[in-house]
Design goal:
Bound molecules: pyridoxal-5'-phosphate
Number of helices: 9
Oligomer: single chain
Shape: globular
Distance between the termini: 30 Å
Strand order of the largest sheet: 7-6-5-4-3-2-1-8
Radius of gyration: 17 Å
Strand content: 15-25%
Structural class: alpha/beta
Number of strands: 8
Length: 233
């Protein structure tokens, strides 16, 4: 077993333990392996250890990696900011985009999604802790944006995504993730046309995956614990 394979086992065990602690089904949480800054060989190692879903932040890097790995059946998730002049790369190459925070970007992705591909699976990013410089729609605007995106035929709205600032202790991490869970539940309950697949709450990273699962995350995005540390940008 390689180091990345070992790390994946450790992360899967963390997820299983957290699910147990939260009295949730072990299968209720999907692991997204965040491979940004790591090369195709690292992704191959993770694939050999059973991982198929990968998250990337930097579009050109991601597309180059995809092309080096086109022999593998991988599912790619865009988890980085999407500028409106870069939507085509996302529409043409990814299965998922987690960072929809403007209708304009969603509309462009919808227009540019190739007809031979399945609809792009998307999450609306919410600025859950109201960091002034952070991306994400304000919580009070999330329902509106979800409903607008649900009208776009080439996108399938799957849920919400958040990146709260790191907090020093477990209880405070749970508290901020719980706000996202409440918002997610409220939108799911409000429902509406095109919301029948609204089932994904993308939250939790290496430092706070247990708290995110405790609060109700259905997809954790894990980089460091699988691939190791990254150079600071
Ligand atoms: C880099 C990144 C991650 C992974 O973070 P780790 O702390 O390395 O697990 C998750 N989500 C987003 C949006 C990221 O940019």
């Amino acid at each position: 077993m390689t180091m990345i394979g070992d790390n994946l086992q450790t992360v899967r065990a963390r997820i299983a333990t957290a699910c147990q602690a939260a009295r949730r089904d072990a299968g209720a949480v999907t692991l997204l392996a965040v491979s940004k800054t790591f090369g195709p060989e690292a992704v191959r190692e993770a694939f050999a250890a059973g991982q198929t879903a990968f998250g990337e932040n930097y579009l050109q890097e991601a597309v180059d990696k995809m092309s080096a790995l086109r022999d593998l059946p991988l599912q790619w998730h865009c988890i980085g900011p999407i500028q409106s002049n870069k939507t085509r790369l996302v529409a043409e190459h990814f299965s998922w985009a987690h960072t929809i925070d403007r209708l304009r970007v969603a509309q462009r992705l919808n227009d540019q999604r190739p007809p031979d591909l399945a609809p792009l699976q998307v999450c609306v990013q919410v600025n859950i802790d109201a960091g002034p410089t952070k991306s994400g729609v304000a919580p009070q605007d999330a329902l509106w944006l979800v409903r607008e995106v649900a009208e776009l035929p080439r996108l399938q709205v799957r849920g919400l995504m958040t990146i709260p600032d790191s907090r020093p202790d477990f209880q405070r991490q749970v508290a901020v993730h719980a706000k996202a869970k409440d918002l997610f539940d409220a939108i799911a309950a409000a429902g509406g046309r095109g919301l029948d697949h609204f089932d994904t709450l993308s939250m939790g990273m290496t430092a706070d995956l247990e708290a995110a699962i405790q609060a109700g995350s259905t997809m954790v995005r894990i980089g460091t614990a699988i691939f190791g540390g990254r150079p600071k940008p």
